[in-house]
From TrEMBL:
Protein name: Carbohydrate ABC transporter permease
Family from the record: Belongs to the binding-protein-dependent transport system permease family.
Keywords: Cell membrane, Membrane, Transmembrane, Transmembrane helix, Transport
Keyword Cell inner membrane attached: no
Domain ABC transmembrane type-1 per the UniProt entry, residue ranges: 99-292
Protein's organism: Streptomyces arboris
Region (Disordered), start-end ranges: 1-30
Length: 306
């Protein structure tokens, strides 16, 4: 009798496990809402910023009758060229003199104050001397003091020196720029390595040559940034000129326009001149920022990433 050996049954093959489906991410409505809110705020800010400039552009093309007979944002007859001609011809071209005065005050003061600020900031960063940090603290205190607070003491000092009602009364106070010194130190820390200066000294360069030939070219973005800040501040320097000047031939353009605006009720023909003069006064600032924006943008990021 034959015997058969029983073979064990093969274990059942388990069915492949189903991969759990990834959980559905909830729709983030908060992110979309925040973007909409941010864009709405930016749109409001843009409208708020551009509306006065838009009105100024439109009003500069109108004559005196259209300024009051038409809607503020509607176009009237085009009188831009005739308004410009009347502006520069009024009172023997007094507005042109004010414009040149502003350029003189602004360019000379901006260049000199920027040089002083860059030199001081470079010295605070690269040199070690007694009381350096305390002196730099005094500079920072100067940043916190509003410029209008010091105008009366400056006027009294200028009066003692006989500088009131002169170009020097406006130029000399503009040379001091504590905020520029602070920025220059930051730029010097970010742009000028100490090793490069040591190499220049090893090659026999003196301190003045090291600063002018080595450090100053490296500080070009910072120089332009400080120059733009100084240029804008000096171009808009109204209160200092108001305190120091009595002769209208020495007025900067902003003070001259203010004086014209004070007399529009007695001389209504000045109203279109004030508007077109305000538009012309904005042009130098726009040109400066457009021409130097490449350096200005790079200067703003100095020291952000090291």
């Amino acid at each position: 009798m034959s015997t058969q050996t029983a073979t064990p049954d093969a274990p059942p093959v388990p069915a492949p496990a189903r991969r759990p489906s990834p959980p559905r991410r909830p729709r983030r409505t908060g992110g979309l809402t925040s973007k909409v809110a941010v864009n709405a705020v930016l749109a409001v800010v843009a409208v708020y910023t551009l509306m006065p400039l838009t009105w100024l552009l439109i009003a500069a093309t109108k004559n005196y009758r259209d300024l009051f007979a038409t809607n503020p944002f509607s176009l009237g007859d085009f009188h831009l060229l005739s308004n410009l001609e009347a502006l520069f011809a009024y009172n023997d071209g007094l507005y042109g003199r004010w414009l040149l005065n502003s350029l003189l005050y602004t360019l000379v003061a901006a260049v000199l104050s920027t040089l002083v600020s860059v030199a001081c900031g470079y010295a605070f960063d690269k040199y070690v001397f007694r009381g350096k940090e305390k002196l730099f603290g005094v500079v920072l205190v100067g940043v916190l003091i509003p410029s209008t607070v010091v105008q009366l003491p400056l006027y009294l000092m200028a009066s003692e020196l006989g500088l009131v009602d002169t170009y020097w009364a406006v130029l000399i106070p503009s040379l001091v720029n504590p905020f520029g010194v602070y920025l220059a130190r930051v730029f010097s820390e970010g742009y000028v390595p100490g090793e490069v200066l040591e190499a220049a000294r090893v090659d026999g360069a003196g301190e003045l040559k090291t600063f002018t030939k080595v450090a100053l070219p490296m500080l070009a973005p910072g120089f332009v940034t400080i120059f733009l800040f100084s240029f804008t501040a000096n171009w808009n320097n109204f209160y200092g000129a108001l305190m120091m000047l009595n002769d209208e031939r020495l007025y900067p353009v902003n003070l001259g326009l203010f004086m014209w605006n004070q007399n529009v009720y007695q001389q209504p023909e000045l109203y279109p001149l004030v508007i077109i003069g305000s538009l012309v006064a904005v042009v130098p600032l726009i040109i400066a920022f457009l021409c130097l924006q490449r350096f200005w943008r790079s200067g703003l990021t100095a020291g952000a990433v090291k």
